[in-house]
Amino acid sequence: MVNDVIREYEDHLKKAVEALRHQLATIRTGRASSALVEHLQVEAYGAPMPLNQLASITVPEARMLLIQPYDAAMIKTIEKAIQQSDLGINPGNDGRIIRLVIPQLTEERRREMVKVVRHRVEEVKVSVRNQRRDAIDQLKEMEHEKLISEDDLKRGQDRVQQATDRCVTELEQLGKDKEAEVMAV
């Protein structure tokens, strides 16, 4: 029973790490990456849809993205969604293709991006701490209902804390790596 709780908790931790990886991939550095815009929500056909379902996204140069909508009528809508996003990039189009030129980041903008990275890492760490509390509460409830012994509770809590420590270390490393990438000129 304790193993089930811990296995479920470790699955949550893996998902948290993957979610942070995905979030950090969308933070722009000086280079173009399709991850910057592929999950950008665009109001299309009466519902919000990710951009990668409405257009092909290519990276022809280190600092340029090309977005080619599958439906040419969607160009204005996609352009509007990009302008309203927090990317800080002004799109240009020729009627068929939207071009996004990724400007060189200023020192001030790099520092803002580092703050965003730190904020996202902290959000995930809070989520991990909440999951830890829930897992420990489950173990305590099992001990209270006499399903496990007090020793099993203590060992389970220790294992939960060890898994939490490993996860937090990994999250912090992901954050540091992204900060270094953002600050690199």
From TrEMBL:
- Protein keywords: Cytoplasm, Protein biosynthesis
Gene Ontology terms describing biological process: translational termination
Q: Mind telling me which GO cellular component terms the entry cites? A: cytoplasm
Q: Where in the cell is it found?
A: Cytoplasm
Highest taxon above the source species: Bacteria
- Span of domain Ribosome recycling factor: 20-183
**Does the record carry Translocase as a key word?**
no
Molecular function, one GO term:
ribosomal large subunit binding
Using the UniProt record, give the first listed, main subcellular location: cytoplasm
**What HAMAP family does the entry give?**
RRF
UniProt family annotation: Belongs to the RRF family.
Cite the NCBIfam families for this sequence.
Answer: frr (TIGR00496)
Q: What does the record give as the function of this protein?
A: Responsible for the release of ribosomes from messenger RNA at the termination of protein biosynthesis. May increase the efficiency of translation by recycling ribosomes from one round of translation to another.
The record's PANTHER family line, in alphabetical order, gives: MITOCHONDRIAL RIBOSOME RECYCLING FACTOR PSEUDO 1, RIBOSOME RECYCLING FACTOR
Q: What is this protein called?
A: Ribosome-recycling factor
Q: Which organism is it from?
A: Candidatus Viridilinea halotolerans
Gene for this protein?
Answer: frr
